[in-house]
Amino acid sequence: MKTWTDYKKHVKETNPEIGKDIDEMEAVARIVGAMIERRHKLNLSQRDLAELCGIPHSSVARIESGKVIPNLNTLLKVFRYLDLNLVVEESSNVYSL
Q1: In whole angstroms, what is the distance from residue 61 CA to residue 49 CA?
Q2: Residue 86 contacts residue 43 (beta carbons within 8 Å)
Q3: What average pLDDT score do residues 65-69 get?
Q4: What's the structural domain count of the chain?
Q5: Beta carbons within 8 Å of 8's beta carbon, 6+ residues apart
Q6: What is the pLDDT of residue 1?
Q7: Chain segment 4-61, per-residue pLDDT in tens
Q8: I need a surface site. Which of 4, 8, 48, 50 has the fewest CB within 10 A?
Q9: Structure-derived torsion over alpha carbons of residues 12, 91, 4, 1, reported in degrees to the nearest 10
Q10: Torsion of CA 27, 28, 31, 32, to 10 degrees
Q11: Closest CA to 78 of 28, 26, 35, 29
Q12: Quick check: helix, strand or coil at residue 63?
């Protein structure tokens, strides 16, 4: 396989459950990436953002490092102070639970 896209396609064909995990982690990475980018643009440190949101600095650090996936409540608090919106839209990818 030559590219990440090729590898993902291969994984999805051979193990759909792991393929779903990859998709989910990429979605989380996009969300956290937007959070980091916006925090930098606003010239806020992790500590500044944590204080504004009323959450521990360690929570912001763990979210940004990918060590934890933020719960929705925390994510919405952070996005509110970063002036970001979380948009939910219908997807062509339908997952069965």
Answers
A1: 10
A2: no
A3: 92
A4: 1
A5: 19, 22
A6: 61
A7: 888 888 888 898 888 888 888 888 999 999 999 999 999 999 999 999 999 999 999 9
A8: 4
A9: 40
A10: -150
A11: 35
A12: helix
Q: Give the pLDDT score at 97.
A: 41
Query: Domain holding 20: CATH number?
Result: 1.10.260.40
Tell me if 50 sits within 8 A of 57, measured CB to CB.
yes
Length of the chain: 97
Is residue 40 in a domain?
yes
pTM of the model: 0.79
pLDDT for 89: 78
Q: How far apart are CA 51 and CA 63, in angstroms?
A: 15
